[in-house]
Amino acid sequence: MSKYYYSATLVFLICFLIGSRTFAQNDKAALINTFLDEANKSGVFNGNILIADGGKVIVRKAKGYANASKKIPLTIQYRFHIGSVAKEFDAVGIMILQEQGNLSTNDKVSKFFPELPAWANKISIKNLLQYTSGLPDIKYQTVHSDADNWKNLQSLNKLDFDPGSSYAYNNNNTFLRRQIIAKVTSISFNQFVKQNILKVAGIKNGVVDPTDNDSLVARSFNNDFKQDGLEVPISGWTCLTIDDFYKWSQCINNFCLINPISTSEIITPVTADKQSGLGSGSMKCNKVTTHIHDGTALHYQALELTDATKGRTIIILSNQRQGNVYDIAAAIQAILDNKPYQALSKIGSK
Hints:
By secondary structure, the protein is α+β, with helices and mostly antiparallel strands.
């Protein structure tokens, strides 16, 4: 047989395999779209979703309403609060400043805020990133601004536990991370995110602490279609579109802002069942292998799930929280892996 025959056969096989894979992905995308359509019709999913598999985006979808009026349909251009996932921006910000030599995660809080009580001499930035500071949670009943929270921290006499001896996931750790960034850079944390993170990562539609004057912000509401406000007790919450969220996820995986060593420091929790600055995840040979982070704010809920070994990313944004984003992700993964999956069921009014 001629070399031409072998070459032609090889080209045919490659084209056949690529075509078969594309067909399989299209078939799975159709199943996922049907699953999401049914979930929306049954009232268990209102939001936007993006799914990449094999390194290719196969589903990019908006389902439901942009607000409680039931008059404005969602589109992929809408921005969502992403809850605790927004803490990734201050965690990455800290590591940017460490790489620049402007701080160290071993620095104590007192270095930046000597006016705080003696406990600030014991808490390191690393404690803040790992939620091992011993700080109590924010007093949400009385805190309505950063200034309110500063007053509470300045009057705090005792930590809940010695820094590094235990774990407590709460937003005072996040608050101080953001305040340290503002102190070191001499600009607000919100400005820092816009100039040094969003712009560098190529995220053009992100907004920090949106107000009623900002357009294309999905508004959250409950099952009775009662709409939430946008007020938050402390500042610094980044909102993203589904496309920008995917871009952010890829930025983390491809080290577009911080290097692998810095990424490892904030993606690896103190123990497997805890959270870190990037939620939780794993790395191997200086590559991100898994990354999982979920967030909730008001009736918003978000989930980012990456399995780099499969080139897979699932991003879910909801503005009518049902507490089922992990169930949705599990069903999607089952479809992608050719396994059985369950339809979603309504869990009642929230």
